[in-house]
Amino acid sequence: MQQGQKKIALIPAYEPADELLNLVIKLSDAHFKVVVVDDGSGENYRRIFSAAKRFADVIIHEKNMGKGSAIKTGLSYIKRHCAENAAVVTLDADGQHSVADAIKVCEAADANKGSLVLGCRRFCGDVPKRSRFGNSVTRFVYRAVTGISVSDTQTGLRAFDTNLIPFMLDVEGDRYEYEMNVLLKCSKKKIPISEVEIATIYFDNNEGSHFSTLRDSFIIYRDILKFAASSLTGFAVDYGVYSIMAASTAGLGSALSVPASNITARIVSSTVNYTLNRRFVFNSKENVTKTAAQYFALAACILAGNTALLSFFVNSFGVNEYAAKILTEIIFFSLSWVVQKCFIFGKKPEAGETQNMVKTE
Questions:
Q1: What is the pLDDT of residues 17-37, one digit of tens each?
Q2: Among 16, 104, 243, 324, which residue's CB has the most CB atoms within a 10 Å radius?
Q3: Domain limits at 52?
Q4: Strand pairing of 87-90 and 158-161?
Q5: CA-to-CA distance for 165 and 116, rounded, in angstroms?
Q6: Domain end (from 190, 211, 232)
């Protein structure tokens, strides 16, 4: 990064230890503009935030609103009060990110305008089991959903230029799911994601983390789990209708029986699936006519591909028609999820939607 390049460090903090103050001082010494968001930590932590005011701008949430909300509060503040054309880096408050690594990701963001730069840990050596496991799961899910490989989906060390702040503010999520949603929305908007290797640092087996393995993992995977449940219900309807039709039309021969049974089953199951996805999975408020048209256009495309692949398995490879049906549905599951999540039922920001919160000290 060139001499004089502006660097802004944003730290969301909830009930931090003294590592936060040490980090703020080091960042200030390295010529970062530092913004800290106290996410409702309470009176017991006022001492730390009061000391941080000498080196940083401190914004206070009167109550805990979640990491995603804290990041968006900080970004809104930076947009209003800080220099344009700067590199913004988010860091965790627990001291697991070094200033040297913050500088590295800022340099990468400066060299790759319009990109999201992730400071990625390699998870070598003595890494807490829940951190290693959690990252493995989210990495697998993200690749399955988007087709993009990211080595550290849970890193809190992320850098981007200030022109991406409006994009970041539009991403849904108030808690830990926000960071996964950023990655999902980057894939939708074709925003490049690049990686910079950083040190893997943990204190006291990561006991300072406020991430709840069960609660916050559920929040992160909630939409995917609901989509899987909806798809399983749709598949049960689809497979039931298909099996009845296949048995009833067996005398027509597989060349006619298989596609006729599959088309009938898909028409019935897609109606069920659309209703569940709109109301239960994505809680979409978009116009019914618009989303229905998009959904059934998708369903028609999937039906054509599904039927062709199913007939190919049965007629060309001699796969049992019932086993072939299951294999075909698995292949089209991820494609359907991505299109519905990103293009059909994706929530649009409402006019006048604003952040709840805040006071600045």
A1: 999 999 999 999 999 999 999
A2: 16
A3: 7-211
A4: antiparallel
A5: 11
A6: 211
